[in-house]
């Protein structure tokens, strides 16, 4: 079932919902959609949960405000609170993937009373840095290409990604595995992200032509600016949350990723352990890449259900 909810600031979110019972909210990342949870929704519903997967603001059937500032951490977490309010629920379990993980980790810090538990996929919890992220990137990647720095200038990455949505989505979905990291970090040779992404002749087994066509059609319609604007708020998010210095996630938590996910090289998950006070597990799916919940749904669903049933 699809429904539309409205937030206090006039944003509408398209939400796919299945099942009844305790709510579990599934939060996608970049460049994804609520559709990215198509394998988890029925599994959670069958197990007695109310599973909800929104298209986050900037994506798919949800609102795409124009201002960069409309995509900061307060707005993104606020949308999830508005979803809870619309459901009449005090709390929910929140599961995020990629950028969605960053959003749900922050939600657990900012509004722990609304979070029954939290699961981050692919992107581990990262404590607040001591200085602006952009300052650290400038030093660490002074002579190298780094995709988040590339995403900072409005009208650059957006145009490149939207020029050929089919090439962008094929490269993104088929290419983000260990060994393909030059799409994200590599020699600064003047190329953007898309030209660095591999274009395999065949789709992987987990991605059907229909799946790819769905992503391509949606991003051809919406463009990528909304999603890229999330990245443009990383410094702003740091400035907005000085109270999170040294903060711990106190609610039950789970981390899940594929062993072939290049994000684990960029952000080693071992660093998060001391900040997760009730870490219930760290699940690494052998051989899975970045899109773990789509690539290996059986293993991911089993781990999620074990976590949920243990709460």
Strand content: 15-25%
Helix content: 25-40%
| Overall shape | globular
Q: Which structural class fits the helix and strand makeup?
A: alpha/beta
Uncertain residue ranges: none
* CATH homologous superfamily label: Alpha/Beta hydrolase fold, catalytic domain
Please, what is the average pLDDT?
A: 95
How many β-strand runs? Answer: 10
Polypeptide structure, described:
With 311 residues, the protein is an alpha/beta fold. The chain has a single domain, classed as Alpha/Beta hydrolase fold, catalytic domain (Rossmann fold, 3-Layer(aba) Sandwich), CATH 3.40.50.1820. 36% of the residues lie in helices and 17% in strands. It has 13 helices and ten strands. It has helices spanning 40-46, 73-87, 99-110, 133-140, 147-150, 157-163, 165-175, 209-222, 225-231, 234-240, 263-266, 292-295, 297-309; strands at residues 2-6, 12-18, 23-27, 50-54, 92-97, 115-121, 144-146, 185-187, 253-258, 279-285. The strands form two sheets. Strands 1-2-4-3-5-6-9-10 form an eight-stranded mixed sheet, sandwiched between helices. Strands 7-8 form a two-stranded antiparallel ribbon. Helix 1 (40-46) links the parallel strand 3 and strand 4 (50-54). Helix 2 packs across helix 3 and helix 7 crosses helix 8. The radius of gyration is 18 Å and the shape is globular. The two termini are 27 Å apart. The model has no long low-confidence stretch (mean pLDDT 95).
């Amino acid at each position: 079932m699809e429904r539309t909810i409205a937030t206090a600031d006039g944003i509408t979110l398209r939400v796919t919902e299945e099942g009844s019972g305790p709510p579990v909210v599934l939060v996608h990342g970049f460049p994804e959609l609520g559709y990215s949870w198509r394998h988890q929704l029925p599994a959670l519903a069958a197990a007695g949960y109310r599973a909800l997967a929104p298209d986050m603001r900037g994506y798919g059937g949800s609102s795409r405000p124009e201002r960069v500032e409309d995509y900061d951490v307060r707005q993104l977490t606020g949308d999830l609170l508005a979803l809870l309010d619309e459901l009449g629920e005090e709390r929910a379990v929140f599961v995020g993937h990629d950028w969605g993980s960053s959003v749900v980790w922050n939600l657990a810090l900012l509004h722990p009373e609304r979070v029954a538990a939290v699961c981050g996929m692919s992107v581990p919890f990262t404590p607040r840095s001591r200085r602006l992220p952009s300052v650290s990137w400038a030093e660490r990647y002074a002579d190298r290409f780094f995709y988040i720095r590339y995403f900072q200038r409005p009208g650059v990455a957006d145009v490149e990604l939207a020029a050929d949505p089919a090439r962008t989505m094929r490269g993104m979905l088929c290419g983000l595995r260990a060994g393909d990291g030059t799409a994200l970090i590599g020699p600064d040779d003047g190329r953007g992200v898309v030209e660095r992404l591999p274009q395999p002749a065949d789709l992987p087994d987990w991605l059907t032509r229909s799946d790819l066509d769905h992503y391509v059609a949606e991003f051809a319609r919406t463009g990528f600016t909304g999603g890229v604007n999330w990245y443009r708020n990383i410094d702003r998010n740091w400035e907005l949350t000085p109270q999170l210095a040294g903060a711990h996630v106190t609610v039950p938590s789970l981390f899940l990723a594929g062993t072939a996910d290049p994000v684990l090289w960029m952000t080693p998950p071992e660093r998060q352990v001391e900040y997760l006070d009730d870490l219930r597990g760290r699940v690494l799916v052998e051989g899975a890449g970045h899109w773990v919940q789509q690539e290996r749904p059986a293993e991911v669903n089993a781990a999620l259900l074990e976590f949920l049933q243990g709460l």
